[in-house]
Design brief:
296 residues; N-(1-d-carboxylethyl)-l-norvaline Dehydrogenase, domain 2; globular; three-stranded mixed beta sheet
Length: 296
């Protein structure tokens, strides 16, 4: 049985690895990226480079997007050159970006008006997991549509969790990233206390990472923070700032003040203001390393 043609949008840190997994699994692929140079290497693997999202979606049975934020997603899907203008009725759309729940629901309505069906399917994992096909998909939308595209998601991930109706995947992804952002901001402050307090940093971090605070994320970020190892980014700092803002807004929509999300957001916004937005999120610690005379 022939495999369905897939259109894939966004070939950055995560999308690039995901698209390569699809090519490796033998799916016919059309790709679109705002900067064409990122798309050109995929042509060597057999992908067709499209000039617009509309062109990529035309003739495709499944369309997948992995971009930075609501604005980028909106620009891909809507408008004369957007994917919905080219998608034929019956196409299944998969939005894997981390986006606001409000935009996902608006996009689902636009997809339905075009005779298409949307799954919001953001992922957990970062650059290494995307490259290895070990992502976890958090899916909202129709169970029938999910079963139709399950083999495609399985080519990119190790787990697929159907969470409920449209927006469910996006909501849980924001909650997930909110928890990660709070941990990262807390670790940055803790490391600054260790360093400024004159403790043996290696000994202190061994205690913290192997004790009760030592989540897998804390272990990974601690190693990158102590090594000043921020490139290539596993997850861009500015994207965590964006996710915390979306999460805080979503909390507010449910009558939750989101005090910890807001506090962590301020820490990340300050890091972005200091020019660290395109580095790995572990670079959030650097804003605390400006103490005069401190040797790190």
């Amino acid at each position: 049985m022939d495999k369905p043609r897939i259109a894939f949008f966004g070939l950055g840190t995560m999308g690039g690895g995901m698209a390569r997994r699809l090519l490796g699994a033998g799916y016919p692929l059309s790709v679109y990226n705002r900067s064409r140079e990122k798309a050109e290497p995929f042509a060597e693997g057999g992908a067709v480079i499209a000039a617009t999202p509309r062109e990529a979606a035309a003739g495709s049975e499944i369309v997948i997007s992995m971009v930075a934020d609501d604005q980028a997603s909106r620009g891909l899907w809507l408008g004369l050159d957007g994917a919905l203008a080219g998608a034929k009725p019956g196409t299944i759309l998969i939005e894997s970006s981390t986006l606001s729940v409000g935009w996902i629901r608006e996009l689902a309505e636009s997809a339905g008006a075009a005779g298409c069906e949307l799954l919001d399917a953001p992922v957990t994992g970062s650059r290494p997991q995307a490259a290895a096909g070990e992502l976890s998909f958090l899916v909202g939308g129709s169970g029938t549509a999910l079963e139709n595209v399950r083999p495609v998601l399985e080519a990119m991930g190790k787990a697929i969790v159907h969470l409920g109706p449209t927006g469910s995947g996006s909501l849980l992804k924001l909650i997930n990233n909110f928890l990660c952002g709070v941990q990262a901001a807390s670790l940055a402050e803790a490391m600054a206390m260790v360093e400024r307090g004159g403790l043996n940093r290696d000994a202190a971090m061994t205690i913290l990472t192997n004790g009760a605070p030592g989540s897998p994320l804390i272990k990974t970020l601690s190693a990158r923070m102590t090594g000043h190892d921020y490139k290539p980014p596993y997850f861009m700092l500015r994207l965590m700032s964006k996710d915390l803002a979306y999460a805080a807004a979503e909390g507010g929509a449910h009558g939750i003040e989101s005090m910890t999300a807001t506090a962590a957001l301020k820490v990340f916004q300050n890091a972005v203001a200091h020019g660290e937005g395109d580095l790995d999120l572990s670079a959030v610690v650097e804003q605390f390393r400006t103490h005069e005379g401190l040797k790190l």
